[in-house]
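Blackboard transcription, Thursday session:
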Amino acid sequence: MDRYLVISSDGHAGLPPERYRDYLEARHHALFDETVQKEIKAREEHEKRFLIDDFNTKWRARVGDGLEGAWDGTIRNRVMDGDGVAAEVLFPDGITERNAPPFGADIGLRPNAERAELQWAGARAHNRWLAEFCRDDPHRRIGLAVIPALYDLDETMKEIRWAADNGLKGVFFPALTDGYDMYNHTKYHKVWAMLQEANLPLHFHSGAAPAYDTTQPGWIGTYLCEFAFWMTRPLWGLTFGGVFEEFPRLKVCFTEAGGEFWFPWIKQLMDIRASAKHTSGKLGDYYANMSMKPSEYFARNVWIGCSALPDEETTQSYYDIGIDRILWGTDYPHPEGTWPNTAEKMFDSLGGLPEDDIQRMLGTNALEVYDLDEKALWDIAARIGPKRESLVKQAAE
Amino acid sequence: MDRYLVISSDGHAGLPPERYRDYLEARHHALFDETVQKEIKAREEHEKRFLIDDFNTKWRARVGDGLEGAWDGTIRNRVMDGDGVAAEVLFPDGITERNAPPFGADIGLRPNAERAELQWAGARAHNRWLAEFCRDDPHRRIGLAVIPALYDLDETMKEIRWAADNGLKGVFFPALTDGYDMYNHTKYHKVWAMLQEANLPLHFHSGAAPAYDTTQPGWIGTYLCEFAFWMTRPLWGLTFGGVFEEFPRLKVCFTEAGGEFWFPWIKQLMDIRASAKHTSGKLGDYYANMSMKPSEYFARNVWIGCSALPDEETTQSYYDIGIDRILWGTDYPHPEGTWPNTAEKMFDSLGGLPEDDIQRMLGTNALEVYDLDEKALWDIAARIGPKRESLVKQAAE
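(Written on the board underneath:)
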């Protein structure tokens, strides 16, 4: 085989907001009609403070209708073919400031007691649309159900069951638990048992953070310094809570931590915290429920979705994290992703590494995470995958 | 001079709780009388879940009345002489689960709208006692005023002024801002201006964190993985908020991050976040208010109080942070500190390094941070400081 199999761990898909109406339970239509334009406008206003308009406008002009692959399967497959991507993991929020599911069931998923029921309704609307979208091309589309898990575990279990029955391949949970029980709480064990049994990997994705005062200087820099923390916080709760000990086949993916140097640190941090003898002497035998080191659970239960890589050299980070933990991704159609320069960026971040390592990170690791039709994917890769020679680095380069 | 000058960056002092009554405004006495025993009991109960009783009991038996140096100046000086410590920075909370100022004005300082006034009263009671304690031996005791800064800036400015007028040498602010304005907010500029002008360094100390469910497995491991984050969060707000740009002589100390590997990471993280061109292209020119790299502000405005070091090798971390940023500390009288084995632990963490580097970290850096009588301190060091030869490492070791 002279081509790589590429499975992007980080894709975003979603309808234009007004079209979610068709997937929303009728009892929420009145409120939806009343609020959808306001939600769109608020999102645009927020994004104006957040994104450089000029940057976005230029970028959009250049990529043309490719953005509409966020909800249009034909366009999406055209883009994927061009990028050499055989299949994609699909999170919500197609185009950053558009295409978000209604009522806060978006990539910034965060519990909000006041609109718990609405957030669930928004999540279900997205999940129902996404299941259709994935059914249209089940090999290439690895859909994740949006699960506002913290309010109600019965509802959570029901929706996970629905997702599994309807061809979705994983779940996306809120990383911020705010006032709700954190993921080390034993009440979640039945959820972990179900995810393990159904082979549905649990996903956290960067984005959510506590509210910032966007009128103040430095709030974006503050966000950039800590967004990886907010996404990763569930990791040590699960690890030290003994969840990976109890559920050895539970799979957890952390996606788009923007600069993968973060996870080598965190892996090291957890091991240090589990071994600082003097401190633990004071603090008690808190890891009695763990038979392995945190980094050993990490090497078995955790995968890192790597996309939106910074300019800096990250090759060593892949090895520090573990080549078999890395799931490369494009983040299509977000502007910080690789598209429409995927081939070039793939070369920048992977070119010159051993072919086996490249293949693991680009695609075969994902085969181990998700329940996929390998034969079908290799057939697609044979047609559109990047040529192996394209990632060979000449001595001169 | 054949001895080192040692100034510990991390000491704790506080009265037995019931004795704070004498320093508390009379209008709070009734409530104090009603709650002080409950506060003591609640603290003991909490610590029982948190600390290994056996560990603490044994440790206490070994150290004897040395613990009472938390409030007894004669005992404290005896311990300091034995440890070779000429002077100490004094945070609240003498003995971990005792000696905390009332009404939450303790080392876990965290805003709480419902008892803002009481927390201020507790802080003022501590500050008034501490000012007395420091006046008894003004060269050796570098007292920090507890400032529950977030509620009311007029009150904050008034107390800072009081602290400066009464011989205190720095301030201790809450690291967690919870719902209150974060430290990048420009409303704090007048506070920074006052601290800069009065040469009162701003301190954050580890301890505070969001509430955990202490009935659940893994909560201590969770706390250990993130307590350094909670303490350090103000750093990127101040940096990216342009505070160090605006107040180039403002000094900020972060104390007891338990394993100093944390700060080399954070310094690197901030620089990466300030230079990730593609992401900043999307996110805007958020560092327009900074003329230097975050690590350059760090090298000018920030010091790291290093105590409670883990067993792991940390020498390289000192150099990664910057030898001129390190303020060595004993954490006396906390059980995770160096006392009563200070000489041995000092040797473990510093032995064999160049003498000039050792002297900077042990004491002369602190001379640059605080307004101190250098001559008086060198005289004390000449009498009780550790011998320089004690930190020489033989080739055989």
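Lecturer's comment: The longest strand of chain B covers residues 7-12.
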